[in-house]
Amino acid sequence: MSNKKNDLGELWEVFIQSKNGLPYKHVGSVYAHDKEFAIHNARDLYNRRNEGSSIWIVKSSQIVAVDLDTSDYIINNSDDKIYRNPTFYNIPDEIKNL
Amino acid sequence: MNKELFIFCLRLADNCLILAHRQSELCSKSPFLEEDIAQTNFGLDLLGQAEAIYNFAVEIEGNINTPDDLVYKRNERSFYNFILSEQPNTNFAFVVIRQYFMSVYLKIIYTTLSNIKDSKLSGISLKALKELDYQINHFELWIKRLGLGTKESKEKIQNAINELWIFTGELFERDNLDLNMEKNGYLLNSNLFYKKWINFINDIFNESNLNIPKDAYMVTGSKNGIHSEYMGFILTEMQFLQRTFPDAKW
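Predict the joint structure of the above. Result:
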């Protein structure tokens, strides 16, 4: 995820919601100089075939990510706490999007 | 009426076809990848509109087999696209201005056609309008940015406007056929048409600090199949395969 600025503008991350109510999913990134063109470029690259019902665009530089080397206590904080996952429940068949 | 409707459709579809061809020339040559995809996309939209209208024209004419016959077997003098549509991609500003002038023109045409009784033609128009709204929006973004950008970008976009302005007169010409189409509700009368068109141009040019050139000499001829020097080259490229290997199959 580079936030380098060049002739193509800045890098933006694109998130698409495939159906109303579902979470937005990261689909890729585009270059653009401003938010209007970022939307246009994302539309042409990632939403040509009715992939989604809504689009979010975020400047890559605005995304805060954890540092993978020093973040063990943030990412792997429940390795030894199996009871935090609801693995002992049966999920009803009707539930589709869990 | 059918004969006139046929020619009316050809004029419209020829514009879409030749604009699509100019857009297709940008494939892999746009300023950057994202814009390349956008521009090629516009070409595909326009080609789709041309195909739909040619199909409709073939149906009402009765003696022509397929749209391909219309595209590949007519000579220059039988094409009726505006001379504006065939103007080359001199630089990106020329592409933006040519496509913008024509997108607005097509939007007005299709808006009228979407309200007529013929369900096929109105269906084609409704679908095209959605595509054109996006194109118009996209080119407006560019006009604004180039007009309000650097000294060089403003110069280039104003230059493209000045150079292409003489081709816009044709958009509002009316011959007898057009007047009959007006009577039947297929076309707005020239004054109203011009007002709607110039409103778009005025708004975006004002916002972008650009000037409309003073009206002077306007180029004319396409309604009679007369074109600029560029048209022959377009057809040579487009019709090459069909002319060399008639009726070749894929």
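Chain B touches chain A through twelve residues (CB under 8 Å).
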